[in-house]
Design a protein that fits this description.
The radius of gyration is 20 Å and the shape is globular. Helix content is about 40%, strand content about 15%. The protein has a 7-stranded parallel beta sheet, with helices on both faces. A two-stranded parallel sheet has the order 7-8. The protein has 2 domains: about 160 residues, Rossmann fold (3-Layer(aba) Sandwich), CATH 3.40.50; about 120 residues, UDP-galactose 4-epimerase, domain 1, CATH 3.90.25. The protein has 10 helices and 9 strands. With about 325 residues, it is α/β, with parallel strands linked by helices. Strand 7, helix 4 and strand 8 form a beta-alpha-beta unit.
C-alpha cells in the first residue's frame, strides 16, 4: 500500500512514517524541505503540490498544520492559512484523484475548549475557542461540505476526520515535558486538592488506529482518539516522580486560598491566574467508544499509564 503523508517531519509524522515503514507501507511525503529517512520513496515541498500525482496513492494522511501556541504568539491569519488553507489544497487534490482514503488530523479543540457534561463525544455541537480550534473547525467544515456537495465522488472513497486529545510519546516536547522538568527541579505541586481527570493519547495507540483505518473498510466519519482511561494531574505527578526515582511532592493547599491567589494573578499578571488555574484543574474526558467499535476492539493496545511511562522514560534518557 502506498501512502502520501503531509507534515512528516513533525512529532506525529516521524513516528507514523517509521511505524508504517516497518509494516511494509510505501511512503511519500510533503513537507517544508526537511531531510527525510532513506526509506521515504519521494519527498515533495508544498510549492510543488500541483506536481504530485495523487492517483499513485492508496491513501493520503494530512498531518501538516500549525500547532496550538499556548503563548499566543501566532496570529489568527497564520492559523487560518495553514490549518484551513493547506487542508483545502490537499483535500481538493484528493477529491479529484482515484486515491481511496483520506485521513485528516484535526483536534478535540476544534469542537470544545472545555467539556460540557461527563465526557466529549463526536456528536457535540462544535464550539471552538481561539484561532487554533477555530481554524481546525473550518477545515473540518470544508471537508464535510464537499462530501455533501459532491456525494458521487465519494462512492468509493473513505474520509476520516480524527480528533485526538493531547498526544504524547518519545520525542514529544509539549506540556508533559514541561511538567517533567518542574517535578525534576523538586518544586512541589500545590494543586493536590483538585482531583481532576484528563484524557491523553499515547502515540502507540494512535498509530495502531491509523493502521486499522488503512487496512479495513471502516465507515467514513469523525472519530475521537484517546486512551481507554483517564489520568488525574495528581496521578501524573506521581508517575513523573516515580520515573525519576523520587517521591512525589503534592501539596493539598486549600482551594479557597488557591483561588484567591489566582484572582490576584489576574490583577498583577502573575504566573497563576484564574484562566490558567481552570486549565490545570478542569476535567477533560473524551470518549473513544466510536473508534473502538469501528475498528472492532474492546481496548486499545497500550494502557494510559503505560503510555505515559514510556513517554517519561524517553524524557529521562534525553535529559
Amino acid at each position: 500500500m502506498t501512502i502520501l503523508i503531509s507534515g512528516a517531519s513533525g512529532f506525529v509524522g516521524t513516528n507514523l512514517c517509521s511505524y508504517l515503514n516497518n509494516l511494509g507501507y510505501t511512503i511519500d511525503v510533503i513537507d517544508l524541505g526537511q531531510s527525510v529517512p532513506d526509506y521515504v520513496r519521494a519527498a515533495y515541498q508544498w510549492n510543488h503540490l500541483d506536481a504530485v500525482y495523487f492517483n499513485d496513492y492508496d491513501a493520503v494522511i494530512h498531518l501538516a498544520g500549525m500547532a496550538h501556541d499556548t503563548k499566543n504568539r501566532t496570529s489568527e491569519g497564520v492559523y487560518k492559512d495553514v490549518n484551513y488553507g493547506l487542508t483545502k489544497r490537499i483535500f481538493d487534490k484528493f477529491v479529484d484523484s482515484e486515491s481511496a482514503n483520506f485521513i485528516f488530523f484535526s483536534s478535540v479543540k476544534a469542537v470544545a475548549d472545555f467539556v460540557k457534561g461527563d465526557y466529549l463525544t463526536e456528536d457535540v455541537v462544535p464550539q471552538p475557542v481561539g484561532p487554533y480550534g477555530e481554524s481546525k473547525a473550518m477545515a473540518e467544515e470544508y471537508i464535510q461540505s464537499i462530501i455533501k456537495k459532491e456525494p458521487n465522488k465519494f462512492e468509493y472513497k473513505r474520509v476520516y476526520i480524527l480528533r485526538p486529545c493531547m498526544i504524547h510519546g518519545p520525542g514529544n516536547k509539549g506540556n508533559l515535558n514541561q511538567l517533567f522538568k518542574l517535578v525534576s527541579m523538586g518544586i512541589p505541586w500545590p494543586l493536590g486538592c483538585f482531583n481532576n481527570s484528563r484524557s491523553f493519547t499515547s502515540i502507540d495507540n494512535l498509530l495502531f488506529v491509523i493502521d486499522k483505518l488503512l487496512k479495513s473498510n471502516i465507515e467514513s466519519g469523525v472519530y475521537n482518539i484517546c486512551d481507554d482511561k483517564t489520568i488525574s494531574t495528581n496521578r501524573l505527578i506521581e508517575l513523573i516522580a516515580e520515573s525519576q526515582g523520587r517521591k512525589s511532592r503534592i501539596w493539598k493547599v486549600k482551594k479557597k486560598l488557591i483561588k484567591a491567589l489566582a484572582a490576584l494573578g489576574d490583577t498583577f499578571h502573575l504566573p497563576l491566574n484564574r484562566h490558567r488555574l481552570q486549565k490545570l484543574t478542569e476535567n477533560y474526558i473524551v470518549s473513544n467508544n466510536k473508534i473502538k467499535k469501528a475498528i472492532g476492539v474492546e481496548n486499545l493496545p497500550v494502557s494510559a499509564e503505560d503510555g505515559i511511562r514510556k513517554t517519561l522514560s524517553s524524557f529521562k534518557s534525553h535529559k
